[in-house]
Amino acid sequence: MNKTSASAKRPATVMVEGREITVTNPEKPLWPEHGITKLIYLEKLALLSPFLLKHCKDRYLTTIRYPHGYAGKSFYQKNCPEPKPDYVRIAENEGISYIHLDNLPTLLWLGNLACLEFHASFDRISNPDYPTEWILDLDPSREEEPRIIEAAALVGKLLESLKIRSVPKTSGATGVQIVVPIQQKYTFDELRGLGQFVGDYLSSAYPQLFTVERLTKNRGDLIYVDYLQHYKGKTISAPYTPRARYGAPVSTPLKWEEVYAGDIKPADFHLLNIGERLQRYGDLIDLEQPQDLEHVLSFIHAKK
């Protein structure tokens, strides 16, 4: 082994919030086409941390690990790996020791393990029966879907007509998710009823664009309005999580005016430019106050 390769594999040590974190293989390429090594990835995670941690705290965390970079083999991780540092907190649920991602050292420890995606549960650790947001997932049936922003705009207009304030966000992959911050007093079943109402309307009003068909093989090229995913025990790509795809995309909240203008696409937001956006806009989800949905739920109930 020559000196260069030996140096590249030599562990590095960083101090974060008084904790010593060992970075193994710091020059290991994780997104090689974009020059993102493990060390650069950890720097980007630190930049994202004030936002990403906020949306993972008090949630059960599932990560996806890519030991050989985003294009290599991967595996899901729910149980906390051992040995774990003493700063890593655990949340037990149904026999699984989930990591409670609530501090920067834990985030960087996971980054060193090549966790490239962070998926947070809809249910909260502190109050699992009542979510703090309602989410619709617009899921394309094909890998490239040029209509996804158009579809999100139609959902946004519908929610506006129902006097529901929402924030669109890219999934970081091909889809868009509509996040509705809510007062913590509605059950998952109540919100599923609202989701079904919206999904049925969209698939009826725009049958060439939307479907509520669960089976992928029966959807054709339609965009699936997934209201069933929002449920206790299920997860979503956390706001500001990176995704293990070409281009190092990041799940990014959007402004509705960006969506209505129609000149953006999910791939526009990635690890190499997300810092500038966060500095400019901050956390767009934070700008919406939790809202009461009683006016819509009572209307749906009256129609039954």
TrEMBL record:
Record CDD domains: LigD_Pol_like
Coiled-coil residues: none
Pfam families xrefs: LigD_Prim-Pol
InterPro entries attached to this UniProt entry: LigD_pol_dom (IPR014145), NHEJ_LigD (IPR052171)
Domain DNA ligase D polymerase: 46-284
PANTHER family, per database record: BIFUNCTIONAL NON-HOMOLOGOUS END JOINING PROTEIN LIGD (PTHR42705)
Name this polypeptide is given: DNA polymerase domain-containing protein
Source organism per UniProt: Paenibacillus glycanilyticus
